[in-house]
Amino acid sequence: MKPVTVITRTLAPLPRANVDTDQIMPKQFLKRVERTGYGEFVFHDWRRADPDFVLDRPEYADAGILVTGPNFGSGSSREHAPWGLQDWGFEAIIAPSFADIFRTNCTKIGLLPVELSPKEVQWLMELAEADPGAEVTIDLPAQTVTADGFEATFDIDPHTKWRLVEGLDDIGLTLAHTDAIDAFETRRPSYLPSLR
């Protein structure tokens, strides 16, 4: 997983509440076995129904931060939703609240979920709509979000923050203990199953 420290990108505004994972990544695209290649299917149904959908507007083509409404990522626990958002090019999502499983799935792949107050999110939403080229900086070590004329702080679980800054997904956490695993294996009786 790529370490997450400071993200400076433009915003894509999605002023909708209760966006569920079936809207983020519709079920018909869950048949793939790879973890990549989902970006083109993000918000597929909404994009087909609305030719002016935010992700298809040229002024938001390079946006790397999605700013959206409360309870983002509700519904099923499909990991494909954050995979698709990250594959599209988003490095962070800013919202007043996230569904718990969705938030956890994001942090496991290095997609940073940032919770700000509704008022702060609205300010950023309006900034993105008024000036699509305006950059916002998310500083994870400092736990701040800044833009011209704007500064906010956010909370994050300390262990999750450490994992993100260090770039450690679940596999990376396990590999950090390779020496201890190898030492354990050398002490195991040969008649027992091996972990190798």
Give a quick summary of the entry.
33% of the residues lie in helices and 17% in strands. The protein has helices spanning 21-24, 44-49, 80-88, 100-107, 118-130, 158-166, 170-175, 178-187, and strands spanning 6-14, 65-68, 92-95, 112-115, 135-139, 144-147, 150-153.
Written account of the structure:
It is a single chain. The chain is of the alpha/beta class and 196 residues long. The chain has one domain: Aconitase, domain 4 (Alpha-Beta Barrel). The protein has helices at residues 21-24, 44-49, 80-88, 100-107, 118-130, 158-166, 170-175, 178-187; strands at 6-14, 65-68, 92-95, 112-115, 135-139, 144-147, 150-153. Strands 4-3-2-1-5-6-7 form a seven-stranded mixed β-sheet. 30% of the residues are buried.
